[in-house]
Records
---
Amino acid sequence: MSIKDTVNNARTKWMEGTGPDHDVVISSRIRLARNISGYPFPHFMSEEEAGEVLHAVKLAVSSKEIEKVIGALEFTELNELTAVERQILVEKHLVSPQHIENPVNRAVVITPDESVSIMVNEEDHLRIQCLLPGLQLEETWSLADKIDDLLEKTLDYSFSEKRGYLTSCPTNVGTGLRASVMMHLPCLVMTKQVGKIVNTISHLGLAVRGYYGEGTEAYGNFFQVSNQVTMGQTEEEIVKNLVTVSKQIVSQERTIREVIFKESKPYLEDRIYRAFGNMNYARMMTSEEALKNISDFRLGIELGVLKGLTYDLVNELIILTRPAFLMKKAGRNLTPEERDSLRALLIREKLSKVRIN
Amino acid sequence: MEKGGNYWGCILVIQSSNKSEMLCEKCQKKPATVHLTKIVNGNKTETNLCEVCAQAENAMGFGWKPDWMLQNIFADLFNQTIAGNQALSDTGARPVHCEQCGFTETQFAKVGKLGCPKCYTVFENKLDPVLRRVHGNSVHTGKIPRRTGGTISLRKEIEALKRELQAAVDREEYERASEIRDKIRSLENKIG
Ligand SMILES: [Zn+2]
Ligand SMILES: [Zn+2]
């Protein structure tokens, strides 16, 4: 696969519905912030310096050893891509929205399976990101750790014994590590338990955020839990802490699901059938509505109401229904109405093999 | 990590309901269907707004640009430190700046980012208390880069062995102590 496949294909590694605890956890992510010594941080760099950093990283990622251990890494400058293609990288969680704000002298490095992506000259010179499906944060960390070691063989990192890896913003200094777990918590939301959990988590140096919200709510009940503290703890401690908390949330969501499945089965089934009807027959569908239905579909898999529906397919729908991806499919700019209509069409096509059990 | 009130967490939860008895806290007209729970530094605030006022508050801004909020709070904390210092010292002097990149503490207070790695040394005294507040700690205990870390890991290993040596001597395990001593010597030779 190359970058052209990446922006043309809605599928990506993290959405494989087979990871551990995939009924609740969508993906595990590790991000490492690194800077090259002797250069100002990206926001304070001249164009010339930015170009030099780009060049240094390009050389580093093309090393034979990296290819042997990780696989071929493809280096792409952001201005080689169209605006829509850059937005698709955001929709696939391969780069941050901030990274594509100004594409000059910025690059992205991606592995064929898209489990590794490196942002060059975002807030820091390097942001190494590893993204795997399900709850497997330790594995994700060991992958990031390995790539970090390989890059450090040729790049001089700015590191201080006392402060650790020096980053542009002091909120990342130390380990430069941000670990996060994306979860789907429909039943904790239904029973209004999410607020309570968040309250508890805040005392552990972790944060919870709603995901995929565009207006005022977290559409589709997707939440991201991540560490806020990057100093005074080892990487292993941060990861372990987050895994422990995630497992607790997973078990709480499961417990409540079980109760709801037992107590309110007709109500839930009704919701899933309605979502199915909606997705199969709607001719115009907004992305919020699609996410809401996708959320119900995930529960539908658990309940066994729909045949042929897999986590894989449901996760793919998340990307497929995002605005930039639709425009790429259409090959041109679309008005919101045109997007809603194309979205509805693509969903119907994808669900053609799904039946009511 | 230290226990107690030093943790810094900034959390925002947004819940919405279809119907609500409550009135919007801002406009006092429409029903409050958006419920925001914000926890900053352990202080919890709950806000109940209508759809329109919530949009105006840019509630989801936090959701989309999480780092933005962290950065701003960091800059705020730093600002407080500068303000405190200025009250003590004479004003009118050129603000403290980094000789490597020219970044000033005023700029830092504004954008919440530093100019270059050297800035960490230049602004060290002011950064320290802020790092403690944000991370509960200001000293790195994690990974050390193999090559650019130079002899740091070796020195740390020697320090740990020396502690082990002392413990062995205290327990009168002289054979073990002599083994450790040999290890320390060979590591010290590596540093040269
Ligand atoms: Zn209002
Ligand atoms: Zn500087």
Note: Chain A has two domains: 3-257, 264-351.
---
Amino acid sequence: MSKRRPYVRPMDGWWLKNPYYVRYMSREATSLFVGVYALILLAGMVSLACGETAYNNWLMAMTNPVSIGFHLAALAAAIYHTITWFAVAPKVMPALFLAGKRVPDIAITTTQYAIAVVLYLGLFCMVWRV
Amino acid sequence: METIKVDIAIVGGGGAGLRAAIAAAEADASQTIALISKVYPMRSHTVAAEGGSAAVTQAHDNLDHHFHDTVAGGDWLCEQDVVEYFVAHAREEMVQLEHWGCPWSRKDNGHVNVRAFGGMKIERTWFAADKTGFHILHTLFQTSMKYPSIRRFDEHFCCDLIVENGRCHGAVVIEVATGKFTFIQARAVIIATGGAGRVFRENTNGGIVTGDGMALAYRHGVPLRDMEFVQYHPTCMPGTGLLFTEACRGEGGFLLNRDGYRYLQDYGLGPPDPSPRNKAMELGPRDRLSQAFWHEKQKGKTIDGPHGQVVHLDLRHLGEKKLHERLPQICELAEEFLGVDPAHAPIPVCPAVHYTMGGIMANGETASPLAGLYSAGECSSVGLHGANRLGSNSLAELCVFGKVAGSEASKFARSVTSHHSGTLEKQAEDVKQQALGIITRSGGTERMAILRTEMAQSMEDGCGIYRTGTAMQATCDKIDELRERYRNLNIDDRSSTWNTEWLLAIELGYQLDVAQSMVYSAINRKESRGSHQRLDGYEQRDDVNYLRHTLAHYNGDAAPRIDYMGVRITKSRPGIRAYGAAGEKAEQERKNREAASD
Amino acid sequence: MTDIEKTIEIEVMRYHPEQDASPVFKTYRIPYASDQSVLQGLQYIKDYIDGTLSFRWSCRMAICGSCGVMINNQPKLSCKTFLRDYYPGKIRVEALQHLPIERDLVIDATDFINKLESIKPYIVPREARSLEQGEYLQTPEQLARYEQFSSCINCMLCYAACPQYGLKPEFTGPGVLALLHRYNADSRDGARADRMQIVNAEEGVWGCTLVGYCSEVCPKQVDPAAAVNRNKVNSTLDYFLRFLMPGGGESG
Ligand SMILES: Cc1cc2nc3c(=O)[nH]c(=O)nc-3n(C[C@H](O)[C@H](O)[C@H](O)COP(=O)(O)OP(=O)(O)OC[C@H]3O[C@@H](n4cnc5c(N)ncnc54)[C@H](O)[C@@H]3O)c2cc1C
Ligand code: SF4
Ligand code: FES
């Protein structure tokens, strides 16, 4: 009989064992905020459809400090999610080649930030000027 | 003990063993092949080879050039028919590796690129960045998975061969994970266990490079040939011995002494051109470069370092871009292990033991004098390297002679009948008892690490770059003493699962036998040739008495018996071995002579 | 104090299947030098303190892939991790996470090897070529498309980094998927369609939730996460193409 008796370590609580995993779990957790935020928006749409009072009530509810707090948290979560997404995007897209050389990951990530900045500037211009 | 019957057993899963396995599988798909390796094959030390593999490739090169470089590089101790076969088959093997997927570095037009290497007249070294051995090994390992007739015994340690009536019948192996013994009965056995560099203190070899197969064949009466020839590589990391490939110099690196002076020009290797000239200066052969280091050290021209004297390998002028493209691993090693960025500072280097030219005696078909036993790779002395190996010839050797061994063993296995196994099994049982004896006996007092360190230090003292009779005698005595003390070894670990201490003890036994064959071969060669350089009145090459191979025969507890055999010369009479401008002149004279005699 | 007098503590996981129910830790004090690797520390223990400690190593130069262990909870090659990075703190060495422990620091690698064998890790020529015809042509760009993935030294640090592998050992895992991609991305190869079946499977790329730690710990910049996630795109395309063209299609 074989004297081999491989020991398999348990996995419980794995996400707390390494800061990297904690960050990963927080990235995944940001989806909760995004989900709740989508529900709130949906409620807003429904109230708009139900008439002016309903919509005003919804708007009122939005000014509640709890609501503002939630939105700030959701914004932070969304930004965090975006940052992590920008960081992994080069791994998800097919390898890019320019003039026979692989485009480095950092260039792809930087380009995304650049595009985001341009889009946001455009958006702000539209909202504030027009 | 379980007996497993196969047609061919291959001990060693490095480049040579894998190439042999594939060749055997292709020669006859109906034969069963056991591929035995004490580590997973892709961990074999072929993985560490950096620089590249030689094969005539360019239009202005030819087989004769490669032949002459090899024979002169080996100081005429090569079997010339073997060299002819080798140079003629190297390219096809490199192409074969390419077809199997090896990521050779390419030129812009898609063809394979070649680089310059020490002692080679024309650039002919195929390379995969500076991880050539790694890529060759993984390509062969992964390709071997295509062949169902190859059955791997990964992490199985070979502890003896079974020999009866002058024929080899297989090997006894220990499964490392469980300590279980198995007798692998085979009609033909190939040994491909690699070199023995770990018997020296400072070396470029991995922990597994302990000469196992050499010792096994030797103990069964097969002579070890030319064991005194041990190559020192001139550019290694002080302290650890890790290698900075010759490709550093092939790409144009300089060697500088403490005055920032390219000292090689003082040792007949000049002139010091600013960019590499083949077979000159930094691209001279390894033995000459290591010897020049020794002389600089005597003159006090080397540099003090925390691990002894060093010189500088200067790559700064190659520029960051080229360094990262052509020598990425060198940059990584220098930065991580030494904290030196080669683009901005020179790398401190010193010589270290690198390669065992000698090995298990084999003819051009890789057969040993023992029927059914073949050998290939660094453990084998097929006669290619003579007294000094040229860099990048050995990776090509693994493929060329690995393939020969595979097909020859396959042929032999087909030609003989299987032996009735009763008596063989009894022998295998004895082998097992003997191996177990190391962990079951008690009362030992010698600590293994101490014996190992004393052996390695003594080999460095006696069989270093320069040798004297007195120092070699001291090493002979020391190794004799250590073999005696080895019997009194103490082992802490008496278990059977993953008992690495036990296996290390068996390896130390192999190493002591191999070390003994080296030093006794060396002390008996009373001349200087290639990597064997003496300072005690035998400074010259002596073709009258020593244009011969040394054969060391195992002699039990006593010192090995040494005798000699002739060298096969086909077309190159021993001449002057010169490099640099002197070499070019000598070559021109040789050509003129040849032209005149035509 | 000179380096010679300094010492450092290493706490090492010990597990002996013939006598221990589960792993225990044992602490050793060894001499410290700034250029010593953790591997050299382990070797010192084995040579001079306790010969029964088992671990794998060979090349000492970060290329054979034998010496992976957890060092202070991170997967690392012990031969290229240095005592100076922890001194004067303590170092804790464990067997690679997520893999069954055979003994002390030695893990069972058979799962990795079996998976490697399953992906056809060799060229199945796209077009036949004899040796006399010489090498296949491959431009530096075509080489660059797979070279990085061919640099995998099979050290399994990425498996120790991957919680999905720990939770579900059927997952093919980062290293082997990187090698699979290495062959699919090679201009000489023609077996992509076969290998896509492994990619598409539940245990293939879809076992990955993009934790990304595998690429972080890889000592050879193979970036297995990139190989896996690019193949999610390929797998999706492959799925739709098979819908459009019964009999299978080749996706980019
Ligand atoms: C750092 C370095 C760089 C080099 N660079 C170059 C280069 O650029 N060009 C060049 O041409 N050459 C180079 N060389 C030399 C060349 O790499 C080696 O000579 C060659 O790789 C040896 O291959 P091998 O197959 O004979 O042995 P190895 O690759 O060492 O394989 C030996 C095999 O035998 C097995 N084995 C050993 N003992 C046992 C046992 N008792 N039981 C079971 N299995 C056993 C091992 O597990 C292993 O699988 C270099 C060498 C070193 C050390
Ligand atoms: S991908 Fe990187 S970490 Fe994973 S096995 Fe390969 S080399 Fe190791
Ligand atoms: S010992 Fe080979 S990778 Fe560390």
Note: The first helix of chain C runs from residue 38 to 49.
